[in-house]
Specification:
Blueprint (H helix, E strand, L loop, with lengths): L6 E4 L9 E9 L2 E6 L17 H10 L3 H4 L6 E5 L6 E8 L4 H9 L3 E10 L8 E3 L3 E4 L4 E4 L9 E9 L2 E8 L6 H8 L41 E10 L2 E6 L4 H13 L1
Parallel strand pairs: 5-12
Antiparallel strand pairs: 1-2, 2-3, 3-5, 4-5, 6-11, 6-12, 7-10, 8-9, 10-11, 12-13
Length: 266
């Protein structure tokens, strides 16, 4: 039997000038968990203006019978759950004919917990975490979520504060049903300005100055340590068709570097 691939790849020109490889984190009968990088759409969505997306390109590669895609064992792959393009982390692909319905039923019946990791400014942030249950609507014209008690749907996010690094702090956010942009919208409503946020706030990015104990550089100019939003779906746990699952995804390199550099300066 052919070994299950440890990663899958897409050629240059599909998702940018450079080739792209995604780590396969784990798999089960009829499903696969990948570690999605930032700025990669999981599936088609009106807000993405017909941008190339992972599951669509995977289907193309399957039609071409690319061996590593065939070895995934997904005859008709679909996204059971995937974070938004700007968010990194766990992406679940499932076979439409066999296991997709079970995954979507588990999500729809609140059988799973989704835990996100992020870095946010300490200014204006609450001293402790808590529950945010503001209902969210979707503005397709502007491509963003908004709070509305009249038009919004139920949404709940629980925030927990972690280690403090001077002007920044590490946080986790947990929800049982993540609506699109829910974590970003709820974080902003609670005064949590996620590093790299451009849509719901203007938080700025973690820079070299933030990694010095004195808050200034001896020489050279200040530079950001990351290019993208520091928000990562790191864990999914619960039950799918009665079977326990506990999936984790390591932080992307730039996020891990920021945490390491901030920790040394704390």
């Amino acid at each position: 039997m052919s070994p299950f691939p440890s990663s899958i790849g897409f050629p240059s020109g599909v998702f940018g000038e450079a080739p792209l490889r995604l780590d396969v984190l784990t798999h089960g009968p009829g499903w696969v968990a990948l570690n999605k990088p930032v700025n990669l759409p999981s599936d088609d969505h009106p807000w993405q203006e017909n941008a190339a997306h992972l599951v669509g390109e995977l289907r193309v590669q399957l039609q071409l019978e690319k061996p590593e895609m065939v070895k995934l064992g997904l005859k008709e792959p679909a996204v059971a759950f995937g974070p938004e393009p700007q968010v990194s982390g766990l992406l679940i692909l499932a076979d439409r004919a066999s296991t997709l319905a079970a995954w979507r039923d588990a999500i729809g019946s609140f059988q799973l917990n989704f835990t996100y990791d992020f870095i946010a400014r300490t200014e204006e942030a609450p001293a402790e975490g808590g529950l945010c249950d503001l209902p969210l609507g979707m503005d397709d014209a502007r491509g963003r979520a908004f709070v509305s008690h009249r038009l919004g749907k139920q949404a709940e996010t629980t925030f927990h504060g972690g280690e403090i690094f001077n002007r920044w702090r590490r946080w986790t956010a947990t929800t049982r049903f993540p609506r699109r942009d829910q974590i970003r919208a709820h974080a902003n409503e609670c005064g949590l300005r996620i590093a790299g946020e451009l849509e719901y706030a203007r938080s700025g990015r973690v820079t070299l100055t933030d990694t010095t104990r004195r808050g200034r550089l001896n020489k050279g100019e200040d530079k950001p340590l990351h290019r993208c939003l520091l928000l990562h779906l790191g864990r999914i746990q619960g039950l799918v068709a009665g079977v326990p699952i506990d999936l984790t995804a390591p932080l992307p390199d730039d996020f891990a570097t920021v945490v390491k550099r901030l920790g040394k300066a704390a």
